[in-house]
Amino acid sequence: MSAERNELLLELPAVPEICERPGVSTLIELHGRPVVVHAVRQVLESAKNRILSNEPPPAREEIQALIGDEVVAVAVAGRLKPGLRRVINATGVILHANLGRAPLAPEAVAAVASAGGGYASLEVDVVSGGKAPRERHVVGLVRDLLECEAATVVNNGAAGVLLALQALAGGRDVLVSSGEMVELGGDFRVVDTTVSIGCRLVPVGSPQRTRLSDYESAIGPETGAILKVQRSSYDVPGFSEAVAVGELAPLARKKGVSLIHDLGSGLLSDDLNEQMLEGEMTPKNSLRSGSSVVCFSGDKLLGGPQTGVVAGEEAVVRLLEEHPLMRALRCDKLALAALEATLRLYRDERVEAVPIGQMLRVTSAELEARADAILSHLSRRKVKASMVKCVDSVGGGTAPYSDLRGIAIEVPHSRPGRMTSRLRTGDPAVLAVMRDACVHLHLRTVGEYEGDALAAAVEKAARG
Ligand SMILES: *Cc1c(COP(=O)(O)O)cnc(C)c1O
Known about the structure:
By secondary structure, the chain is α/β, with parallel strands linked by helices. It has 3 domains: 3-80, no CATH class; 87-98 and 358-463, Aspartate Aminotransferase, domain 1; 106-353, Type I PLP-dependent aspartate aminotransferase-like (Major domain) (Aspartate Aminotransferase, domain 2).
């Protein structure tokens, strides 16, 4: 380290010295010493990093500015806010994985508040007073909606696949098409999962083409299951031929092995499928085509909380329910409350209340009306902005080909990176998209009631 840097580091004041400054003492009186001391440490740490990383080292005035009262006040304010906070999603990505995928319907939010704010009939049958499995709150609904024999529910989609593989093919071979042995969303790899639980994953066919005869010749006495991974969630370039569930089912039945369908998304409304998603495979279709069990997430196209549903043949689901892993993968009462409330909306034909469906169905005219309201706010405040067409997406590893035409507010800015950063750290936080020298706010994923808050946030960030 250069002598110059070393000197700058040594010149940084100590925490107590900063705390004695009048501006900082006021903060201590207002918010208490611990939170302010932590904020001061954080400010000093980032000043230190700046000294160590900048080429050439920062000037003394710049360092003074970095540890000024105002910076400490901002750091304190940041510490007073919760870390996990509400975000306005202006990215146009409906199932944004980093923003928690599906927002819940008001009915599901109410169910979470009610079950979480007190005790709940989680494992008590209120009629008999006896103990009852927690999954029962959603199992009946899943069975009705999918017209299937049995179902269970676990923590997330990956857990559902893991449980199915372990319970149905633990210690044995699982056949999977080479073209389907890919990473899912970067964090859930079928290969790693099965290896970690002691199944042997046997690739079938070539990455370009897998035929039914490839499965037929790979099946042997060690085969426990065939795993079909839904490929609609990602694109494998050059992969041209896969075997459908309907073709695999008779083979699996004849050989006495289970056919596990890892579907990913659990689309429950048929009209949405026909209108928007061009035949996205649904759990119902999977089971009708003959899969033994189908696994899907509660928080993708289903529009509920993070959960994983496994549905299908009674005898097969029973094996999952009785497996010791089930205890480690079970859902908590909040997730079950939200999932039950969401599924009830489907059963009662009130799917229009599910936000994911609203975002998929919203018309250009509606989006334009939302844009007009925001633009008129911005023009009154003399912020330059305009309405532009944009492309939205379903996201969440779902339906990659259905790009959705959307509407965005475009704000030209001399430093768009700075503006998006101000939006992210504002209150409410807004996630926007940077495009060329502009900031784009996609309106499809912005709730109708969030329009005013978004307009105010954009106004504030654009001025900076
Ligand atoms: C998303 C996905 C999963 C994992 O589901 P999580 O709910 O994220 O755990 C598994 N398989 C497929 C095909 C998926 O698309």
